[in-house]
Amino acid sequence: MGGHVARGTALLLLTMVVAGCVSTIQPPPRPPGVSEAQYARDLGYCQERAGITGEDSPNNLLLTRTLTGALMGAINQVPTLNPVAVAFGALQGGLNMMMATAQQMPSQAEQKMVMESCLANRGYQIAGPNS
Question: Which of 4, 62, 72, 82 has the fewest CB atoms nearer than 10 Å to its CB?
Answer without folding.
Answer: 4
